[in-house]
Amino acid sequence: MLEATRPGAGDEDTEKEYLLERATWLVRMRWFAVGGVLAAAAAAWATHFVEPLFLASVCAALAAWNVVSHVRLDRRGAASVEVLRRLLFEQLLGDMAALALLLELSGGAENPFAMLFALPAAIGAMLLTTRSAVALAAIGWSFQVLVVFGQFTGLLPHNGLHAAFGHVTAIVSPLYRSWRYLAGYLTAFAVMMGAVVYFVRSVTLRYQRAEALRREHERVAQSRARLARIGELSAGIAHAVRNPLHGLSSSVELLQHRLADDARVLGNLELMADALKRIDVMTRRLLSLGRDEPLARVPCDVDLLVEDMVKLASPSTRSSQARLEMDLGDVGKVEIDPARFGEALINLVDNALDACREGGVVTVRTRAGPAPAAPIVVEVTDTGPGIPAEVAQKIFDPFFTTKPVGEGTGLGLAISRRIVEEHGGEVTLESEPRRGTCVRLTVPRAAAERAAA
Q1: pLDDT above 90 as % of the chain
Q2: 310 lies in the same domain as 435
Q3: Of 118, 144, 177, which residue is a domain's last?
Q4: pLDDT tens digit string along 303-318?
Q5: Where residue 423 falls among pLDDT bands split at 50, 70, 90?
Q6: R_g over Cα of the chain
Q7: Are the C-beta atoms of residues 27 and 38 closer than 8 Å to each other?
Q8: How confident is the model at residue 198 (pLDDT cuts 50, 70, 90)?
Q9: Which string of b and e fits 244-273 if b means at least 16 CB within 10 Å?
Q10: The CA-based dihedral angle spanning residues 372, 376, 381, 386, taken in that order and rounded to the nearest 10 degrees
Q11: 449 and 310, same structural domain?
Q12: Within a domain: 226
């Protein structure tokens, strides 16, 4: 009944903070309600409108329940979202029970304050899940049914408004004693509770979707702005490094040709050449952060592109015990920038191979939806150790890496996501510790589809 439905792991702390704030607010508001019931008890004692002792007992029970709620929030305030929702559900349930007792003392169905049942139902619709909000409204309606039906059948005394406003209830009471009135009242009450929950829940869900979309837009904008700032800083460094780097690479190639007969020296030169290539790759990645050039879209067979990228990544398996496989789904041609999209793909494959360095399988899979214009999906799946949830939240941040110093720059996944988003697509990650990781690239077939989206 009280399951958590919103999942964004990155939003859980924010949601927890919001629910804790609302639960504390409810505790404060309940003290005002206790004060109001105390004032009503004093008025009842002075006017003999209802039995003041029983009213004071309800007030004491409500105050005790509020103290218990406050203590439980202090003790379990740092718990999960699900626990906080359960505490809120129990708080609102206690409020409804107190309201039902108060209504039993003051007229039941004849008391217009029965409309106050809509208040905890509306709060539940804002703060709880849909299932919990509906359950809370149904329980509140059941409380009122027990009061009204108990007074109708004589199981409960009919108090309050009859004694104080006899001239009014002379008209109401005959209706109140009819089955037709009872059925109509309870049906209208159920419709009211259901309508409150439906309306408030609909507005809340719409607000949550709009807020999630706004946060996603902010994330994309912040990510691009950060990459742009980093790119401005790194572009100058990269240009300064690449010029002497090319000179060093040319010198190493020349020495390799001249000293081809000396195996020992040639081995050292190969190590130097590999190191220079890695530095060149890093500088190219730094330069790609700062560039904002338009995509060179052309119709490209994604399956052939994947084959080429897998062949390019295959040498990486020499330092890894992983097995690299393909599962191509004949997705056909897509309007993409082959060089940029290939760069994104090779970054993902490299990361997957690193995750399976001690052994495992890396699979690059392509597939398309049933409709001819459906987006295509490229998945890079590995059977490695997986990614913890707290790391997965930051895995696409620039310069964030879990690799040892000197083995990773933290730019590959950030660049890959930027490239896919520039194509109008999205990147999703699914991972569980000890069960591997799947990075999914979803890209529209044509630029027109991206514009329509």
Answers
A1: 4
A2: yes
A3: 177
A4: 888 888 887 776 555 5
A5: confident
A6: 34
A7: no
A8: very high
A9: ebeeebeebeebeeeeeeeeeeeeebeebb
A10: -120
A11: yes
A12: no
* Distance, CA of 78 to CA of 63 (rounded, Å): 24
**Residue 367 in 3-state DSSP?**
strand
Give me the count of residues in the chain. 453
Check pLDDT > 60 for residue 44.
yes
Number of continuous H segments (helices) and E segments (strands) in the chain: 14, 7
Whether this prediction's pTM lies above 0.70 is answered by no
Instruction: Please indicate, yes or no, if residue 337 is contained in any of the structural domains.
Output: yes
Contact 89, 133 (CB under 8 A): no
Kindly state the DSSP code that residue 10 receives in the 8-state scheme: G
Give the largest CA-CA distance in the chain: 119
Domain boundary among 129, 153, 177: 177
Tell me the C-alpha distance between 242 and 250, whole Å: 12
**Which pLDDT value is given to residue 212?**
80
Counted domains in the chain: 2
Tell me, what's the pLDDT at 51?
61
pLDDT tens digit sequence for 143-177: 888 888 777 777 776 665 444 444 444 444 444 56
CATH number of the domain residue 366 falls in: 3.30.565.10
Distance of CA 266 to the CA centre of its chain: 54
User: Could you give the count of Cα atoms lying within 13 Å of 321 in the half-sphere of its Cβ?
Assistant: 7
**Domain encompassing residue 344:** 294-453
Q: 310 and 167 share a domain?
A: no
What tens digit of pLDDT does each residue of 218-274 get? Answer: 877 776 676 666 666 666 676 677 777 777 877 877 787 777 777 777 777 777 777
Average pLDDT of the chain is 76
Q: Look up residue 10 and give its two tokens.
A: 């990155």
With beta carbons less than 8 A apart as the criterion, state whether 428 and 8 touch: no
Q: What does the alpha-carbon distance between residue 332 and residue 392 come to, in Å, rounded to a whole number? A: 31
In a domain, 171, yes or no: yes
**What number is the average pLDDT over the span 75-87?**
75
Asked if 105 and 162 touch (Cβ cutoff 8 Å), the reply is no
Contact 427, 396 (CB under 8 A): yes
User: Is residue 437 one of the residues assigned to a domain?
Assistant: yes
Q: Clarify whether residues 166 and 21 are in a common domain.
A: yes
